[in-house]
Structure formats: C-alpha cells, structure tokens
Amino acid sequence: MSLEKDRDPSTELRTPAVTNFVAAAEPAAPEGPASPVRKFLQARGSGSVADRIFIGLMLLCALSIFGIVLFILMILVMRSRLSLHQFGFSFFTRSAWDPVNGDFGALPFIFGTLVTSLLALAMAVPLAMGVAIFLTELCPAKLRAPISFVTELLAAIPSVVYGLWAVFVLVPLMRDHLGDFLYKYLGWTGFFEGFNFGVGLLTASIILAIMILPIISSITRDIMLAVPNSQREAMLALGATRWEMIRTGVLRNARIGIVGAVILGLGRALGETMAVTMVIGNHPDISKSLFAPANTLASVIAGEFSEATGDLYLSALIEIGLALFLVTIVVNAIARGLVWAVTRGTPSRIG
Amino acid sequence: MSTNPFHTPPATSSDPGRRAPTNFQTRRMQINTARRWFVNHLVTVLAILSTALVIAPLVAILVYLLYMGASSLNIAFFTHIPAPVGENGGGMANAILGSGIVLLLASLMGIPVGISAGVYLAEFGRGKTLATAVRFTADVLNGVPSIVMGIAIYSLIVMQQKHFSAFAGGVALAVMMVPTITRTTEEMLATVPHSIREAALGLGVPKWRTVLSVSLKTASPGIITGCMLAFARVAGETAPLLFTAFGNQFWSFRLDQPIAALPLQIYVYAMSPYDEWHRLAWAGSLVLIVMIMVAVTLVRIYASRGILKGAS
Amino acid sequence: MGVGINVEHLNAWYGTTHTLQDINLNIPANHATALIGPSGCGKSTFVRCLNRMHETNPIARATGMVKMGDVDIYKDAQPVQIRRRIGMVFQRPNPFPTMSIYDNVASGLKLNGFRNRAILDETVERSLKSAALWEEVKDDLKKKSGASLSGGQQQRMCIARALAVDPEVLLMDEPASALDPVSTSKIEDLIFQLKSQYTIVIVTHNMQQAARVAENTGFFLNGKMVEFDSTHKIFTNPKDKRTEDYITGRFG
Fold first, then answer.
1. For a pLDDT cut of 90, what percent of chain A falls above it?
2. Where residue B153 sits, what CATH number does that domain have?
3. Which residues of chain C are within 8 Å of residue A18 when distances are taken between CB atoms?
4. Which residues make Cβ contacts (< 8 Å) with residue A198, sequence separation at least 6?
5. Contact at CB, B141 and A350, closer than 8 angstroms
6. ipTM of this complex
7. Are the Cβ atoms of B64 and A278 closer than 8 angstroms?
8. Residues of C in Cβ contact (< 8 Å) with A13
9. Which of C239, C230, C183 is nearest to C210 (CA)?
10. How many domains does chain B have?
11. Which of B244, B277, B269 is nearest to B259 (CA)?
C-alpha cells in the first residue's frame, strides 16, 4: 500500500512535504570515563530515608493541631473534675456564686454571655452588612482600598485597648448622657431601670459590637465577592434597580455564607474577654435592666481566677472554661462549615 | 381610553394587521417604579451611613489614643520601670522587654510547628481526608477564646511548676500562633505552580529537598507575611498571659519567673485607681497600636508585591 | 554517551482510566526517537513513565518493564536515581523564579549537594553552550533571574539545566510547542547536535518536526502504540492504515 500509488490529486490531504529525512547518527565515540558530575550523582543515595524522616516530621506537626485540641479538652476536664462531681449538670442551671460557702452555679454568666453576645450581634450585623454591601457593590474603586484597610485595622486593635477606651470614654458617656436618654425614651420597656454606673450589660454589648463588626463584614465581603458576576448582570439586564440586583442577585445566592459569617461573629463575641471584663461590672446577677452590672463566662474567669482560693473555686472556674471551650468549638465548626460550603474551603482572609 | 395596558387598541386604518405598542407607563406602574427607585436610594444612603458609622469609632479611638498617649509618652516610658505608687514618672520599659521575650519564645516554638504543618497540608496531604480534617480543625482552633488557652496552659504548666513563668506565657501564645501560621503557609504554598516542583523532581532532586529549596523558597514572601500577621495578633493578647506570665513590676530576664508584658500592664493600670498609671496605660496602648499598625501595613505592602514575585 | 531503552508490556493507569495499553518498543541509543499522535493519546504519559515522573501523581499506576541498558528502572533503582540519568524537558519552560540563571542551570547539581565551585562553573558554561544560550547570557549569569528571559531562552535554559546533570537519556515533551518559530528551529538544531551524545525521545504534535529531527518515529493512538519504525518508512510507506490516516491529516 504505497502512498504514491494511491494519491488522489483531488483530495487536500497530503503527506508532510519533507524530503531530507534524518540520517542515522554518526557512531558515537566509545564510552570514555564517566564525568565527575555523573560519578557524583550516581554515588548519591536516593534520599528515601531523608524523605521519610521529613514527611514524618511534617506529619507530626500537622497532627499537633489535633493534639492541641485534645490536650486542652483533657486538661480542662481533669482540672474541673472536682466541680463536676460536686454539682453535676445543675452547675449550669443554678444561679449561685458564693465562693465563701463553696456554692457555685454558672447560670448568671450564661445569661450575661447570651445577652451581651446577642445584643452585640443585633447591633453589629446590620452595620456589617451595610459596610459589606457598600464596599463590594457601591464603593468607587479608589475608596475601596483605604476603607477596607481601615476595617482591617479595626480588627487588629487588641481587646485591652478597646477596653481602655471603653473605660475612659464609653463608660462616662453611658453614665452621664446616653443612660438618661435611653431611660427617657425607652424606659417604658423595663430594660433601662435601676442605677446606671456606666458599666453593665449595655456598655459591654456596645464595645462587643464594635469588636465583632470587622470580622462579620470582611467575611461577608469575601462571600459576596464569590458570587459570580453573571448573576449580577442577569438581574441588571432584567431592569432591576441596584438594590434589587444586590438583594436577589448577590445576597440571595450568598445567604448561606452570610449566615456563616454572622455565626462566626457570634463565636467571637462569646469568647471575647478583656474589653468585656473591663466594662461589665463583675457582678454575678441576673437582672432585666441593661444598665445592671453582670458577668460573662469569659469575664468571670478573667476577673476571679487570681483570687480563686480553694480547689473547688478553681475547679468551678475551670469548668466554666471547659463549657466556653466546647460551646465556641461547636459554634465555630458550624460557622466555618457554612462559610466553606460557599467559598469552597479557602477563604482569602484568616478570621 | 382604557387604563388596561394589555387592551389592544383597534388597528389603524392604514395598516390593519399592526397592533399598537403596549402602554407601559400606566399610573400604577409609574408609582411602582418610583417606589423601587426610592428604596434603592434609601438603601444606598443606609449603606454609606453604616460605613461612616463603622469608621467613626475607629477614628475616635485612634484620635483619642493619639491625644492621650502622645501627651504621656516620653523617653522615660521606654527606659524606666514603673515608679512606686503615688510617685510620678516611671515607664513601661520592663513590660516592653517582657513582651519581647515572651513573643520571642512564642515565635521560636510556634512558627516552626505552624510552617511544618502548613508544609504537610500543601505538599503531602493534597486530597487526603486527614489534611481536610487538619485544615478544618485549625480554622476552628482559631476561634477558641484566648482565655481558654490561658487557663489550659495554666493547668498544664503553672500548676505543675507551682509558679508563673515567662515560659508558660510563651507556650500559651505559641499555641495561638500555630493554627494561623498553618493556614497561611498552606495557602501560600498552594500558589507555587506545580510545574516548578516537577522541574526539580525531574532533575532527580529528592522530595524533601524540593519542598525546602523550591516550594518554600518561592513562597517565602507570603509565608513570612503570614508569620508577621500571627505575630501581630498575639502581640496584643492579654488573656492568655493573665495566668501564665502573670506580670511583674520589675525587670525580669528569667524564663522561669513571672514577667511583665505590655498588654498585661495596660490592663492592670487601666483598672487601677491611680491617674499616673492611667497615663502610662494610654502611652502603652499607643505603642502597642503603632506596632500593630506597622505590622498590618507591612503585610499589605508585602502581600501585593510578594505574591506577584513568587508566582511568576 | 547514551543508552537504549527497552519497553515491554507497559501499562499505565490514572485512577481507573487505562491510559497506556501494552506498549512495547525499543528506543535505540544515540538516536532521536519521535513520538507522534493526536492529543490525549498517551504520548506524554508514556514519556513520563520512562523517568518515573508519572509516580508524582498519587492516583497514577504502572506495570510492565522498562529497562535502561540492563537496569530495570522500576525494580533495580529508586525514582530519584533514575531521574538523574534520564533528564526531562517540559512543554512549558519552568525555570525556578527565585534563582539566577547560573543557579537554575546548576540546580540539578547544587540541590543534590554538589559543592565543587570550579566544576560547577565549568558545567554551567558547557551546558549553556550545548543549549546554544551561552553567548546570550554569559554576562548576566548571576545577575538576572531565570524567569526574566524570553520564552525561547527560558526553554533553552531548561534544556541546559537538564543537560547539566549529564544524563544518558533526554526526554522532551513537546519542547517547542509553546515557542515561536525562530526559537523552535533553534531547539530543533540543538536536538540534532545533542543526538551524538545522548539518546533523545521527543514527543511532538508537529509531524514536520518529527521528520526533521528523528530517525525513528512511533505513532500512538488511544493509549496503544500503533506503529514504530524509521521515520522515513512511517511518513512514506506506513504499514497501518491508522498511521496513514493520521499523517495525511484525516484526523488529529
């Protein structure tokens, strides 16, 4: 079957037009002594032992992450055994805190934590959404970098500095001005009664709101940016106003992730310690008024740990720490799971 | 004239087959459209307002800090230890040094472990379930309150040794650095193109050497950035140090004794009744914030340059 | 000097896909062998099996025998050792971005622990000359980064880098497909000259290129090797109809 015979001039297929095919190489020179490079390389080992050691070390360090979580869990359980034995589960449903008589119940702190966190969320989430929407959809390009830089800075300010500012600026503001204002207009709700010393649930909630705002905002931004532009364009092509485009084209798609961002903010609020400790009043009581001093799970540990005389007292505080640990782990796991579902596992910012 | 937009007007005599265009501008539709645009503008205003409201506290805090801190800062702040109660003057030099020592300890312990874990995730763990589990756990660990870390390390080290120590403080901060550094290292290594690794492997370079000299070297700007971020984050942490390093009014260079730290000192002074100590707290806060702002800014600059450089 | 490669009953899988099916061929020493075939037919996989690079993919698997000289590269040696004797040039140039030109070319030696400065200098010079790049970069060896060269120069530098470790076989996976015609012809000239010292296997899409540089050609289709013969025979009088269809342009 020779091609020359079969060639049909009418077809456009042609063999490659090559005539000077490669000739066989000249016989190679006889094999001389191997070059020093070749000798060196052939004498080198395969490095498989070093490889195994290396992978082992890296794996060990990766497993240390599990180790850290397990270790914290174990040691907290160990050291709170005393309190666990003594009070059992009712530790979290009783409202007592009497170090002198050795009677401990953490309900007031659960109350304080919940009230401050939820109130902070209520204040922070709308604002964070506003900022996220502004930065991703409405902001002129030149302003975007400075403003997002500013929010990043907000996130980087240490808790104790927020606390310092709150003690010397927010508390007097609360005590001298805001408190009266709130009592006058919202006193009928019953949430603003009693003496107002400036420290208390409301002040703590406000500073907490300021602190969790950046993280909710930046993760919401990441999620909104993950929504493909085609969604936005589709809405605009249908004649939607810009807000309608944002609402249906972006926010609806990003719903799950935004819920995740909010829960992350909640997780942050639950564990926030220093600023809250400095302005919450350190009083183990449950009260309806937002002016009342109180305590959160985190702030009672920070405030009373150094004064914990007696094993039971210490054990009770460590048990509170254990509860805080477990709750934040669960909340964060749920939140991260939701955020992962939307951004596929690699958020561009570390929370 | 009918107000129903879908009522087709009778055909015109000149062109019997042609239907007149639908009237979209009925009263009802005009009101609807106006309402929609009103809502749109309202939301825009709200968004701008909320952004301003968010920026306001930051500006307020910074301005107040600068004002209060700058008037309190002097050379003595950086060179003297706190004066006895009631006396003026003094500084936080011991706290600055103490923070430095504890942070150095934390970095020495936390950075190698974090980078190694990140290397494992990026180079050896791709696609394995173990790697996914580690990654997820690291993210969750990032959310554990720092006070919990503090009392855990207290229970482990301080209770055993029966004294507070700089070492315990270092361990507490190191444990906080590890998850952050792990994730940033992994993300930076993922940006190294696979073709470069293949080039090294194709030359007969063993895998461990490839990771060290090619992957890590190429991703190093980003990895360093991640370490700086983690460092800045733990530099301002107070809670983990409360019951580990504990604080110290005097100079301390030993690792097995309580040691002062800047955030700790600020906390103690802020809650004290002495004006002089309040003044020092403001000054200390200013120093802390400036340090952290410098780190965040450096990270931003480095990030925009470094990633481009490493991945070309 | 080069050595020949003997392949018997080579099968390869990526996960569950049977990418290579019972490949048998004999690559003669000191010759250039071209492998042609349509996209996705397994040519690259085959070549990567020759220096065990396919193992870097965790879901890849191979069975069969590949012998280099009288060394069974799967049974008698570790991948790292094989790759020092069988070098590879990839489709897209992949210089190390953090290293200078000198360090790039010397990387195969330096990263394996070679320290002798004099021999390194000499090897780098010799390799760059073999790759016809010496004149263009000799003044900037340590100043310029490897990634700052043009595409064609980068590929020649990658060839120099592969040559620096003094391999016996050189595998080239479509080395010129990402380059402009001028660089392509420079590289083809290179292959021509390198043949006398090394055994070369070149994968190419470009049949003219195969005809220009290789004495033998193998035609791959759907994971099987359809025909392997002298280039002249393949292009003028192929035995298999599928080969004829391919080279006359009916598909691919």
1. 30
2. 1.10.3720.10
3. 208, 211-212, 235
4. A170, A171, A172, A173, A174, A175, A176, A179
5. no
6. 0.90
7. no
8. 248-250
9. C230
10. 1
11. B244
| Inter-chain touch A62–B267, beta carbons under 8 Å | no
Question: DSSP 3-state assignment of A60?
Answer: helix
Where in chain A are all domains bearing CATH 1.10.3720.10?
A: 81-343
Residue A18 has pLDDT above 60, yes or no: no
Q: Which long-range contacts (CB under 8 A, 24 or more apart) does B13-19 make?
A: none
| Interchain contact, B142 vs A328, CB within 8 Å | no
Flag whether B281 is in a domain: yes
Q: Judge whether B9 lies within some domain.
A: no
Q: Does C107 touch chain B (CB under 8 A)?
A: yes
Burial of B156 (0-12, 13-18, 19+ CB in 10 A): buried
Neighbours of chain B (3+ CB pairs under 8 A): A, C
- A158 with B292: Cβ contact below 8 A: yes
Which of C82, C92, C98 minimises the CB distance to B218? C98
Is the confidence at residue A348, as pLDDT, over 50? no
Token pair listed for B72: 């309190």
Give domain status of residue B242, yes or no: yes
pLDDT tens-digit series, residues C58-113: 888 999 999 988 889 888 888 899 999 999 999 999 999 999 999 999 999 999 88
Q: Residue A42: its chain C contacts at CB < 8 A?
A: 81, 84-85
Q: CA of C57, closest CA in chain B: separation in Å?
A: 10
Which architecture does CATH list for A81-343?
A: Orthogonal Bundle (1.10)
Entry pTM: 0.85
Name the closest residue on chain B to residue A152, using Cα atoms: B296
